[in-house]
Structure formats: C-alpha cells, structure tokens
Write a structure and sequence with these properties.
heterodimer, A: Rossmann fold, 35% helix, 17% strand, B: globular
Chain lengths: 491, 358
C-alpha cells in the first residue's frame, strides 16, 4: 500500500523493549476498587447505587450523564462501601466523586445483555446503543465516548475505518501486546465498527517497530478482503489522528474539521476489542491493559487491570520501585500527564503508568533561545513554536492565536528537541487555556450585551407605546372637548 | 508517596542536547582549519588568536556582571568563545593585539549585550566587529602577509612574534595582497581580469590555503571538512551553505561569461576570500539567520549575491561581512514571510477547503 509522508516529527528513545516481550497478565483482584464518575470527555456519569448496595460484575452503577458521556459499571462483584471524594488521576491532584467497591472475591457476573446475534445484520443504531451502554471510550488515551464517534456514519459519508495501532509513544506496549494476543477479537470488533459506520474499508496501521504485531494482525485479517494491515514508518507523532489519516490516505484534514469530514474515522485497536466484547458477549468495559514501565519499576509489565484498581496495586504487582522515581506519568512520556498520587485509580483511558528516573527524563533548567530553528523543522503541524512562545511569554495571546497556537496538538516534539530545554508545549497549553477563557468571557459578554440591548429595546418600546397611548388619549380628549365646545356653541 | 512536587508537564523525556554541546561542536568543527592556519601564519597568529578569544570571554563576563546576570552558567555555553574564534579568523593574522581587544568590545559589548545577550542580537557579533574594525582601521585590517609556517626559515620566533603582535613591528617586506584585493587593484589601474588573474595563486593553492589572507579565508578544504562535520552532526543543514555558494558561483559564472575582462569567474569567487567560512560558519549562525529552511535559502542566496555585488562594484575587495550584516537586518522580515504552511491550512492560514472529499 502506498503511504504518504507526514511533516516533521522526531525519533525519541523508544525503550519499548522494557515491556514488549511481557505477555499480558491479569492483576490479582484488589480488595477495593475506586470508580470515578468522570473518566471520559464529556459530562460525568450519574450515580445509580447507594452505600451498602450489593453489586455484581458488569452491573451499571452510574448512568450516562448526557449526550456526550458514558455509564460506569462495577468491575467486580461486591458491596458499595462509599460514594466519596477520592484523588483523581489528573495533574491537579484534586479529588472527584468516586464509587468505592469492596470486592467480595467471587468476581460474579451480573446478568448481561444478550449478545447481538448477527451484528452485520443489525442496524447502526442497535450497535451504537450497545457500545454506549457498555461504557466504551477511546482507549488510546483521549477517552472520548466511542458511541458518539461511531454515529458519525449517519452524518457523513465515510469510506475508511482507520484502526490506530501505531502506538508511537515511547515505553507503551499495551496495544502491541493486545494486537499480538487478541488479534481475532480486534479484527471482529473492527468489522462490527466498520459496519456501524457504513465504511466499506478497514485499514489497520501499525508502526514498523512492531513486526510481530504486523505479522499476526496480517494473518488474522487475511480472511477479510476489506481489511488491510499496514506498517507505517516509525516517526513520532505518527499515532496522531490527523497525521495517521494523512500518512494512510494522503488526505489532509482541514483545520477545525474532523477526519470524518474527509471520509475517515479513527479508532484505537483496544477500543475495537472492547466493542467485540460488548457486542458478542454483552460485556461492558470493566478492565483494560496497562503498560507499567520505566527505569524506576522493578519488573515492567503489561497488566490487564480492572478499572478502579489503584496505581499502587499495579506498581506493587510489578515488584515495586527499583529506584526513587523522579516522575510518575499517566500515559506515554511525550503526551502523558503527571500522576499526582499512587492512590489514583486506573481509568479507561490509561494506557500506561510510567515511573521514570531523573536520567530518563533529562530535565534541565531552561536557558535562552538561540533560534536554532529545530522546533520549526520538526513541528508536525507546520507551526513556528519559537515565535509563538515569544508572544505567549508576553501574554500576547491574540498574536499567538493568529500564529496558530490553537492548531497545536501538544505532541511535545518541540519541547523534546529544544537544545535550550525551553518547555515550549507548556507555553502552548497555557495559551490554549487562556484563549479558551477569553473566548468564554467574550461569549458571556456578548450574551449579556444582547440581553441588555433587548431589555433596553423592550423598555423603550413600552415607553414609546405608553407615550403613544397617552398622546392618543389626549388627542381623543381634545377632540371630544372640541366637539363638545362645538356642540355647546350656539349655531 | 506524593508526586505533587512535580510541577512540570510533559514531555517526560528529552533529546540529549544543550546549547553548550551545540556551541562546542561548532568549535570542534573549526579546529582543523584553525590549527592548520595557526601553523601557516606562525606565532603572531597564535598570539592574536589567544588575545581575541580571551578578550571576548572577558568582555562577556564583564557585560554579564554589569547586567547582574549569573556569569558562570552563561560563560560555560562557549558562545563568547565562538564569537571570539570567528572574529579572530576574520582578522589579518599578524594584526596587533589591540585589534583583537577592540574587536571583542565591538562583538560582545556592542553587538551582543546591548541587545540583551545570547539569542537576542540582531547582527552577527563577529561580523559587526570585523566591519567596525575594517572601517575604522583600514590599513591595519588589510595588512595581509604570506604564510610563514611555524619553524620554517624566515618564520618569526616567539620573541619576534611578541614584537609583531604587542610592539606593532610588522616587517614591511612580508606584506602581500589577497587575491581579491590584487585583482581589484589591478582592475582600477585598467588591467583586465584576464591578465591579473595570472598573478594570483592558482585555485589549488587557494583551496589548500597557502596564500595570503585572514586565518579563516585560507584553506577552503579544511573549512569545508568542518562544515560537512556540522551537517553530519545535524547542527546545520545544507540549505544555507548551498544557497550562499550557489548564488555566488552563479553570479560569478554568468557575468564572467558576459565579460571575462571585467568579471572574475565563479570558481574564483568560490575559492577566494571568506566564501567557505562565511557559507558554513557565519551565515549559518542560528541567532541572526532565519529559523525556517525556506527562509535560510533566501537568506543564503541574499548573502551570496550581495557578496558578489560588493566584491565586484564596491570599494572593498571582500564583501562577505557586509553582505551578512545586510541580510541579518532582513532576518525578521524573512522569518515573517517564510512561515511554513500549517497542517490543514492554506498558506494564508485559512482552513483548507473540503475538496478532497469523495
């Protein structure tokens, strides 16, 4: 298959060998699980259970909180111990409402929805409904509700479902392992998703540093003419949705549009597996494969962990820390977020837990920019980081926006390459936040202004009407008086 | 255990690189050409070289102290040493010590720190210093000598060298004109290029460096080797050097074809003066050249064409330094007009139209 080049990109130290040959193992069931109501993009789920309730594995314990939201399910059987505030896997370290389940150890399944007997005969709506009810989100890290993305086929004409198995982040090997060990489940899930989307073609893109995965997936897909497995060049950020679409189809998604607007929908390989489980067995998303790796971890591993297990449980299962970690990361080292605490739970979008040593992070104090232009050369979005950062440093967001800071995908390549160690992507994330706040403020002001103007208009109109009525009354009275006078005047 | 002390966001990995390493690699690339030229021009050159770099580092330290900035970290980035090194390479090798000291004041004090120090200067510090010196002291700055290799017969010993560099006692008999200067002088006397070119060193001598000139002007081959080393190390890319030398060669060849008696040929332009040093080490200066590859091509071509123009029509035989400074002043505007096309947008910044849709 002909591939297309993408702009820029970097070749970080991948260090996938730490975990790539470790087969997926299930985490021994922890005694307590913590299910946050929000582990996806959109509205938080709404609690359906009370303290003390007994729940079974797979039972819905919180329902979807809106059009863009997902329900949460019990990852095991047990008793609701509390519904309380627990630290979330978010850089802020703030707590959020979390359902705490005390496991009974039986891991007993609830009565699950019937499998969809022939998904390829079912309509889009039935499949999407099942995916939505199963609480599935994008498992590559973004955690966007998958059913919402699967319904794009009803709105746009699609030709390709692109399954993202690029896994371009260093260290992470969970998708690699899932592809190697559960290829048939992914292929089946992908065919169901393509059917729901109305996309005639499926392309599974895998970076060439995963030859076994490419080989196994190619064999698993051999029976289906509509599926192509493609090895893509090792080039970070190949796994970025828009860039992968460009590499595979040559089509460039216009700014402020979706890839669906140019006929392609992208889903992660692990999401396809979750869809397979939901449709074929009625099983909701209650566990995921997490790569636990980094130089500070004693035995890096790929762990199938129930949602809600604490990060500490996974670290302990890997033999604990070998060295004091300098940073604990949720996700890959390029785009992952700092984990505030070992007490944070595993969530649906958590692809990796990295405990990194200071040597691996290689963080140094920033020095002055020497305008070397490396950031311009490697920016996969064609932006000029050096210039944007200069304006953002002066809080000039207007110019930064004009230079395209809102088009930045925060891949971090510029920060990685900068010889002055300037944290460029931090500048851009800060600017994006500020611009969003200003935008909200502006919208609010506009709204206020419109309401105020409408109010003034109403008041003026009422006053005018009143004046008119008064004037009419006066005129009438005058006319009547005149008539009376006329009457009274003797002829 | 809490990790809340982590106040930095991603990426949690970084390329092994630093400003210090970059600057050091450039110094390393200059090493062979410098060593060979110091050998060629002997003790006076070694003394001047040492004085110039020492003064630049001292000037940097003084400026940093005056600005109340930490001196130790800034001095260890080698940027002042590099400026001094490049300045020394653009001076006549037997020039007196005060040329080096004054050059350091111009380069580091005026060109670099009045603008705010590293990364902030508009103009290439070494070239500002060279041009200021050339305009202020034209005689001293054009007193070229023929090579007197170390330990060869007639080469000055250390004591003679001290007298030359610190006593200003340059023996009259040793002065010589550079090839560019010679051709220009002859042309002004009405002698056509076709005749005068026979008396300049042949291209092979010019490539190897056994001719009169500044430290960095001679030995194109070793400068080229250093430049290729920088490319291999990805410190510079091919864009600037190719644009500089390509445009200079094209202009030379074109006008030579039109009138061989008036214009020297392209190869002569490439091999003479500071073409190689300029193309690989001066025009590629990060701070004062454009950041995008497209911008670097324009910048380089401008440097090449201006160099040719100044060499051919202006009063000075060599124009690289002037050309670089003129193009430095255009860098911000070149940067503005050569921004890459953003993903999903047209060159004008509008979102791409949805035409690729089926």
């Amino acid at each position: 298959m002909k591939l297309f080049p993408i702009r820029g990109g970097i070749h970080p130290d991948y260090r996938k060998e730490l975990a790539s040959e470790k087969a997926i193992v299930a985490l021994p069931l922890p005694a307590t699980l913590y299910i946050p109501l929000q582990m996806h993009i959109g509205a938080p789920a709404e609690v359906l259970v009370n303290e003390g309730d007994l729940v079974k594995k797979g039972q819905m314990i919180a329902r979807s909180g809106g059009a863009v939201s997902v329900p949460q399910h019990a990852p095991t059987s047990g008793r609701i111990q509390a519904i309380t505030q627990i630290v979330a896997p978010h850089p802020s370290g703030l707590a959020q409402t979390t359902i705490v389940i005390e496991a009974d150890g039986k891991d007993e399944w609830a009565e699950l929805p019937e499998p969809i007997a022939d998904p390829f005969a079912a309509d889009t709506f039935a499949i999407n409904e099942r995916v939505a009810a199963s609480g599935i989100v994008g498992m590559g890290g973004a955690a966007f509700p998958s059913a919402v993305k699967l319904s794009l086929g009803t709105l746009k004409k699609l030709d390709t479902l692109l399954l993202n198995g690029a896994e371009c982040e260093p260290y992470l090997t969970c998708d690699d392992r899932v592809m190697r060990e559960y290829a048939d489940e992914i292929i089946d899930g992908a065919r169901i998703m393509a059917h729901a989307l109305g996309a005639p073609k499926v392309v599974i893109a895998i970076e060439q540093n995963k030859p076994q995965a490419i080989d196994i997936m190619t064999k698993a897909a051999a029976a289906f003419a509509e599926i192509a497995v493609v090895g893509v060049p090792v080039q970070y950020p190949m796994g970025s949705e828009r860039h992968l679409v460009q590499a595979i189809t040559g089509r460039e998604t216009p700014a402020r549009k979706l890839t669906a607007d140019i006929g392609v929908v992208v889903h992660n390989v692990a999401t396809a597996r979750a869809v397979h489980h939901a449709v074929r067995f009625g099983r909701p998303l209650v566990s995921r494969v997490v790569t636990v790796s980094g130089g500070a971890v004693r035995e890096p591993n790929n762990i199938e962990a129930p949602i809600g297990a604490r990060v500490a449980d996974l670290i302990a299962f890997c033999g604990g820390f070998e060295a004091e970690p300098a940073s604990l990361v949720n996700g890959g080292p390029m785009m992952g977020q700092p984990l505030p605490s070992l007490d944070a739970p595993v969530v649906k979008g958590m692809s990796g837990i990295l405990a990194l040593t200071a040597a691996e992070i290689n963080q140094q104090p920033a020095s002055a920019c020497i305008r070397c232009g490396s950031c311009v050369t490697i920016c996969p979005c064609g932006l000029v980081p050096v210039e944007m950062a200069a304006f953002i440093r002066k809080d000039n967001f207007e110019v930064a926006a004009r230079l395209g800071v809102m088009d930045c995908v925060s891949c971090g390549s510029c920060s990685w390459v900068c010889p002055s160690h300037i944290p460029l992507v931090q500048y851009f994330n800060y600017a994006k936040g500020m611009i969003n706040i200003q935008e909200r403020e502006r919208r609010k002001n506009d709204q206020t202004r419109i309401l105020a103007e409408a109010h003034t208009q109403r008041v003026e109109k009422a006053a005018a009407e009143k004046a008119a009525a008064l004037a009419a009354k006066k005129a009438q009275a005058a006319a009547a008086a005149a008539a009376k006078q006329k009457d009274e005047t003797p002829a | 255990m809490s990790f809340l002390s982590t106040h930095q966001s991603g990426p949690f990995t970084h390329q092994v690189s630093s400003v210090q390493k970059t600057m050091f690699t450039v110094l390393l690339a200059l090493m062979p050409a410098t060593a060979f030229n110091l050998y060629l021009f002997g003790w006076p050159a070694i003394l001047l070289f040492t004085v110039t770099i020492g003064s630049c580092v001292a000037a940097e330290a003084v400026c940093l102290m005056l600005a109340g900035q930490p001196t130790k970290a800034a001095l260890s980035d080698y940027s002042a040493a590099l400026s001094g090194w490049l300045l020394a390479m653009s001076l006549p090798p037997w020039a007196p010590w005060w040329i080096g000291v004054l050059g350091a004041v111009f380069a580091i004090g005026l060109a670099k720190h009045t603008f705010g120090g590293i990364g902030q200067n508009m103009f290439n510090p070494a070239m500002v210093a060279r041009v200021a010196l050339l305009v202020s002291f034209p005689v001293v700055m054009t007193a070229w000598v023929m090579p007197h290799p170390l330990f060869s017969a007639g080469a000055p010993g250390l004591a003679d060298a001290i007298a030359i560099t610190f006593g200003g006692q340059v023996p009259d008999s040793v002065s010589a004109a550079s090839a560019l200067g010679y051709v220009k002088t002859e042309l002004s006397r009405g002698i056509p290029v076709t005749q005068s070119i026979a008396h300049v060193p042949d291209l092979m001598d010019m490539a190897l460096g056994t001719r009169a000139g500044s430290l960095g002007e001679t030995s194109a081959v070793l400068i080229l080797a250093g430049g290729l080393f920088l490319m291999a190390k990805r410190i510079i890319s091919w864009h600037t050097p190719v644009a500089v030398m390509g445009s200079l060669f094209l202009m030379g060849t074109l006008f030579h074809a039109i009138d061989p008696a008036r214009y020297t040929d392209g190869l002569f332009h490439l091999m003479s003066g500071a073409t190689f040093l300029g193309a690989f080490f001066i025009c590629t200066d990060y701070v004062t050249s454009p950041v995008s590859k497209k911008g670097q091509l324009i910048f380089g071509a401008g440097c090449g064409m201006l160099t040719w123009t100044i060499r051919t029509y202006a009063g000075y035989p060599e124009g690289m330094a002037f050309a670089v400074l003129l193009m430095n002043s255009l860098t911000p505007i070149i940067d503005q007009y050569t921004r890459p096309r953003a993903f999903g947008r047209t060159l004008k910044g509008e979102p791409l139209p949805l035409e690729g849709k089926l």
